[in-house]
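Give me the fold.
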Amino acid sequence: MPLGTSLSLGLLALGAATLARQRLALAAGAAAIVWLWVWSTPAVSDWLRGSIERKVPAVTASAMPSADAIVVLGGGMSGALAPWRPYPDLNSAADRVWHAARLYHAGKAPWVVLSGGVGAFPSATGDEATAMAVLLADLGVPAATLVLETQSRTTSENALASAPMLSTLGARRVILVTSALHMPRALATFRIQGVEVIPAPTDVEVVPRPFHVMRWVPSASALDSSSRAIHELLGLARCRLAGC
């Protein structure tokens, strides 16, 4: 990852300088700066994320084929935590839930499976599937159509836990809803479980932008975006090594 790699190179440079190995110290220090600078550049970050998102282009809900169920992956919101937060909190990936409602109201499937537990770091807010159900209810999706999977913490666990639920519903073909950046890895993990998947990416981050000099000036948000993209590429590589 960009930040971790840069810090490691910086520590190497510091150690080399302590041992009077000036060439190694200079090389490691320069590499740390360049590596961090590159992935902090908005233009580079957009290029990397765009190359992943374009693998599975987004289409309108009306253009999607019908399926037996819609599966929505967590990662877009956190649950309520009274009295500080009386309602679920939405982040930038909450488009997933909104798009699921859009697909349901378009008549694309009779069931909506919500897959999301407490995440890698459990919190007092509870599982994400329940939080998604609250938002879908506000968006007019009947509670009777929702099936909640509340145990998964990772994309692989999303697929493992959702597959038997889909089988119980008799859902052989599903519409998978997740962020465009996350879709290639999500597709691979669900397909290895034998689920026939129609991708419905949403939350598209990269769109054409005119040239601007500020797109070559490093920023913290670009570094975060690059880190998320590299995380997806590493996860996809690991999945393929495991047989996805």
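The first strand starts at residue 69 and ends at 73.
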